[in-house]
Amino acid sequence: MYSSNLTGFVLALVSSTFIGTSFIIKKKGLRKAGVSGPRASVGGYGYLLEPLWWIGMISMIVGEIANFVAYVYAPAVLVTPLGALSIIVSAVLAHLLLGEKLQKMGVLGCLLCIVGSTVIVLHAPEERSINSVKEIWELAIQPEFLLYTASAAAIALVLIWYFSPRYGQTNILVYIGICSVIGSLTVMSIKAIGIAIKLTLEGTNQAKYFQTWIFAMVAITCIITQLNYLNMALDTFNTAVVSPIYYAGFTSFTILASAIMFKDYSGQSASSIASELCGFVTVLSGTFVLHSTREPDPPILTDLYTPLSPKVSWYIQSSGEHWKQKDEDGPSPNFITILRQDHFK
């Protein structure tokens, strides 16, 4: 394994560990905050005063920084699939710390992710050496990648302007499709920014090139769009369904974009490419198996904060006929309302 890939692998592993752990710590913080006040799911913000929740947030930030740096040292086709390891970390810790039982098929899903990730690492292509943002810009304006970028933008716009208002609330692929396509451009931009920062810290200032700022603007735009529609997907559909589908779409489009822009598979043998694709399919299968066996969170009883309406019994007299309705568990006679026919005149 090449040294740069090894560095990228270690950083991706650290990132997955911190991100997977952050979900558990934040969830414990949310549970603790929910004991003394309204839960976050019903609009409560007590978790902001809970130190445990902030520890989880710090853990997630550290993980995202490690993931950001990993893209500088290793190709996206190596770093992105390894994100599945965070799912394993969160599943195992949820079993140990939160009492969320990990089924036998869930254990099989974890093993599949580990085996697939190992295959990907062993057959990952070498990260090409880049000495300037201008070199990345030349890769970005290749006809093949410009075609991919234009296609991705067109697909995203069609999904946003036509399909999202009509089918977004009923078809999970609409929101996830937007996130996945835009996400692949996000990774390419972030990788360019990361390399620019690395070269600048080594003494070669990259901020003087306008290309650096273009990559930064593209990254910010893509991140905002991606997060917006990912939140919409999570708010509309079950998380256990959103997560594996999003992972599959995001990873697939990112690998495709990286292969087109950075020519990741150039010079690799057919057997290495086939092995890496098999590793990715294995990780994908493990992710779906793991999520399909996870138990959903119990429903939140929001009625605890809703005042009970008083029950009313009534007695109506009309045309000499009597009709009476009374709740068996109704209130005292003081609450009985008597309606007479002349009230309706």
TrEMBL record:
InterPro entries: EmrE-like, Mg_trans_NIPA
Transmembrane domains' residue ranges: 6-25, 45-66, 72-98, 105-125, 145-163, 172-197, 209-229, 241-261
Alphabetically ordered keywords of this record: Cell membrane, Endosome, Ion transport, Magnesium, Membrane, Transmembrane, Transmembrane helix, Transport
Coiled-coil segments on the chain, per record: none
Membrane topology type: Multi-pass membrane protein
A GO CC term assigned to this protein in UniProt: early endosome
GO molecular function: magnesium ion transmembrane transporter activity
Location relative to the cell: Cell membrane; Early endosome
Record-linked SUPFAM superfamilies: Multidrug resistance efflux transporter EmrE
One Pfam family cited in the UniProt record for this chain: Mg_trans_NIPA
Keyword Magnesium: yes
Subunit structure and binding partners: Homodimer.
Function: Acts as a Mg(2+) transporter. Can also transport other divalent cations such as Fe(2+), Sr(2+), Ba(2+), Mn(2+) and Co(2+) but to a much less extent than Mg(2+).
Family to which this protein belongs: Belongs to the NIPA (TC 2.A.7) family.
Protein name: Probable magnesium transporter
Organism: Populus euphratica (Euphrates poplar)
